[in-house]
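tool_call: predict_structure(chain=1)
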Amino acid sequence: SELEKSQTPHTTFTTHTHPPPNMPSGLTAEQLNEGKMKIIVTGGAGLIGRPLSEYLVGKGHEVHVIDDFSNSENNLKDPIITHTCDLTQKDKTVELITTIKPDIIYHLACHPYEGLSQFCPYDVSMTTFIATINTLIGAVNAKTVKRFVNYSSMARYGVGHVKDDGTVKGAPFYEDYRPHPEDVYACAKVGAERSAQILCELHDIEWVNCVPHNVYGEANKMALSDPYRGFLLIWTNSLLRGRPFFIYGDGTQKRAPSYVGDCVGPMALLGFSPKVISQTVNIGALKEYELNEIADIVREEFTKVTGRETKEPVHTEPRPCEVKDAWCSIEKSVELLDYDDKIQLREGVHNLIQWAYEHFPEGLDSRYLHQFDIEDKAPRVWIEKKL
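tool_result:
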């Protein structure tokens, strides 16, 4: 199909794409700063979840983090309340949520392995789709939840909006684009978000669907040592270990890396603002770059921070099912949430490298999986453990 990029700004969106609940919760944007809500953040120890939890508790809210800590560290500080739970276990998940009885749930938990999902489809589908279903069952049965903020993924858009005639309207992706998943992870995300809409509307819970894209920033040692996701973290860890980093394909793919510090405030507001009820909202950076451009920035900032020279990146075979050009429109988040793209890529990359160098100056060994569900056609750099 022919890739058709819009030549004019796409500025139309409605305040509500679905009817609001029969009994509006009365939540207001002002309540974000009043600190009176009991809030669950699933995946609250992760790259986005941790700063979101800290932001909310800083506003005075009672914040409960539910995480299995498989890709994060269990070292959140009081007054955040942590609960270790695998959300794929229905009974334990439902019991925990119904015991806490939250007012708001931010559901981030999943194993967000878009590229890996073709080779570990069971784990990715379980931790993305089934974990969401179990969390929703708990939310409904708690009978206290006013709003459910579901975290989806830019992967939902695939290559873009596929029209009935087969042509494709590509990046930037707008919220009214028809979902067109190109990988197993995206399929699980689309199923999860639609299930959230159905169950929330049936049980008078407000819902919001958040779509972050390529979020990066200071994280934790589990994220830094992960060879399968977060290319800026992977590249940084490779350089700290004195190795070249790998670029899948020719590096002309385009992305818009989004600094986590810019995203957290608007994401928190999704749980309170009446403007976003029954909305899908993209949140992330405005400017897209080719991966080759990003690679140059990473190498330059790495040398500035560490004083070390870097090796040339190595181009390897394209990653299966990877969309070449993927970034989102952020007009809606700017208008509804006052999103501000404050930290530009070079500054954000500098911050990331500075954090990693201070804590792990020699880098970390990569945490490889013992086996894949399907090994055939997996990238050689994974099979041969080159990262």
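agent: The first helix runs from residue 49 to 58. Proceeding to next step.
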